[in-house]
Amino acid sequence: MSWEAWLEMEGASGQALRKRAYDGAGRGRRVRDWNAPSSSANREVSGSIELLRARSRDLCRNNSWGTGVANCITDEVVGEGIRPRVRHDGKGKKRAVQKIQDQLLWWAESIAVDADGKNNLYGLQELISRTRVQSGSVLIRRRVRDPGFSSRRGLRLPLQIHVMEPDFLDTTRDGPVSRNGAVSGVIIQGVEFDLRNQVRGYHMHATHPGDGIGRFGGKSYFVPAREMLHLFHVERPGQVVGVPELAPAMITLRDLHATHDAALLRMKLANCFAAFIKRSADGEEPETDEAGNHLESLEPGIIEYLELGEDVVFANPPAAPGLAEFSTIQLRAVAQAIGLTYEVVSGDYSKVNFSSGRMAWQRAYRTVGRHRRDLECQVLDPMFDWFLDAMRLADPSLVIPDLYCSWATPRRTLVDPGKEVAALEQEVRAGLCSWQEAVASLGRDPGETLDQIEEHQRELDARGITIASDPRKSTQGGAANGAPGAAEGKEPADGEDPNEESEADAERGFRAVGTA
Known about the structure:
The chain is an alpha+beta fold.
């Protein structure tokens, strides 16, 4: 075989192999209507984002499952609030850190934090999380107030937070930015980048485009990046604007809602039991009242004689078989698309046991964790930096270097507290996790918990009070520490390993971790 013939054969076989290597890359009849453009993330979003937002908000308003998804994610991510705690790694700064912590808590728990004057910081967290679910992204602007405004409003700090929907972003601004005759950056869907691909700022509408007010001629203005926070989940590299959480399940939710409406109408028709009397042409006219209404009616136990030429035909409304099974399958698909469980989306917990509930919650908790991670990294940590800047303006002597903030997530509701707490206890005793990790997994702040334990025990000692729940005085079973059966020097029974730790000793050892 010549060299040219071999190359020709290999080329033909390679081309045939490439055609059949991936069925998903075929171009046959089955995939002829499959529209899958190879465009960038921003081009895909730019042509769809307005309609996606509008439909997502409509589902959250008028669709029970859409409303439930928005409520569930918001409640689990924020709950009663993600609470801040100021930290410093240096020693001898406890008093200074506590002063800043007090100022931060006052600012966070007062409605003075809200530029609209409606929510404290925890209410704003809920608003931010819900807006992100419904609209895909949310804008947060820093409002630095002058001393006169702050004194009139009773603000201790010249800082307020303004939460805005992503519609304020002027997405019509697109293209290169030129300064002094040279390209200095690019604008993508209203977000301006410099030549190093760093966000330079945002082009914002003065009012919400959906208000229809049309003030300022519809022109947008530039806001520097240091004054804005933009929260959204990045699904593809280079993405600039987020997509609503319900986007993959919109069609299914809408069609399922329409199907249930049709089934409800069929149920209403099924309750409309009716009878029709057919008369022949030579039959007598039926009896009527003074108004001309027919006197025939259906009553329990009635025996009615029909006239000659009359016949009775009963209506047979259609039924709706298989609706429950169909709805379950569709809602499971919705739950998978959103990253939640079927039980959360549907509200149906009829077939849940402890094991399945734990497994399902672990899957949903990863989605909740993703939302919390985005919220802390993109909003809460930069917002703490804003707070420190405001503190420097108000009282520069209070701010010390190297401060940071940890955020205590809301307490996680346990499926079965007895089993789950026992499992955590075993992990701590086996050295698989620390006591601090176990406390943090329950949504509590370990440092704050230790402070509360220390204060509680100091108060008990000061008052000379002994309670059964004090782990220093008694074991979990209620036996006093040092009492017979719980003493360190207890003689081992016959056949008992003298070096083996007793249950009481093990219990005291675990409790001591939490009371150190």
